Amino acid sequence: MIYRIGFSIILLGVLLYVVSHAVDINELWQTLATFPIHQFILLFAISSFIFLLKTWRFALLLKNSQIELTRWEAIRVYVAGLATSPLPAGEATRGVLVHHETGTKISKTTGSIVTQAYLELFASALIALVGSFFFKMIELPATLAFAILLIVALLLSSRRLVEFIFKILPDKKFLLKLSRRLRLIQKDVRDNLLDDDTHLPDKVFTSTLGISLITNVVGGILIMLIANNFGVQLNVIESLFIYSAAMLIQGFSISPGGLGFTEGGMVGLLLLFQVDFTIAVSIVIIFRLVTFIYSTLLGTTFLAVFYGKSLIQGRMILNKGAKA
User: Fold this and answer.
1) What is the structure's pLDDT at 156?
2) How many helices (H) and strands (E) does the chain have?
3) pLDDT average, residue stretch 157-171
């Protein structure tokens, strides 16, 4: 984890260096200064709505695993988890928080956590794939990302495939341990997504995928509003595509929170839509401020206020989440 954080800081430094030499910093600050301050209220409200949609999705998956949370408990758990979402322990931390709220074994939350993370990427990949039919310049990466996620779906659902893969691999202890862990995850994920009788996607999958698609649409509206305030007339389709692509880049990135990669990818996509470089950088800065920075600060506040006492008493939530 330390290496990833260090790498992301270096990468972000390189990105800032490139930006500082590619754009006039004074011009960039002047452009940012033109953004209406009152618009931040709306943007933060939209970001909060996205968090609520994701909380709803998480609660549905937990309920399907016979883990009941009240609405307020679900909001507390999901938002507090945003504090560590940029790090590898992000999703696992939510499992520890669910355990803290309900006493449920952390292992029982695995299916919901893995399914949620998968749906997040799958919905974005699906939109990016559809968008690639209109924006040919990203057809190859969009198709590749979707293909990878289909392979992951097979690994998460096909017991025979997993058994075959580990059968042809060397007989090593860590591989055997990984095989057992993957089989347990498979069972949990299948329970969340597939009907026991037909082995086809069930209502929970349809509902949670639908919520995931809606979050992308709302995220696209967020980008459109930011762009429009800078005088850039991006339409909903273009904005939706940029948001989905950004979520994919963040999801596949090796750096915490996609630092460096997400920003660079978004600027590149905006340039493909003929947006001025300085304005493109400004759009990305505002977007990351009202999403990534805001979510991390909000999550840290929730974690400190609602779970701080447990942390102080030595519950070590973050360490447990990292090991889960």
Assistant:
1) 72
2) 15, 0
3) 66
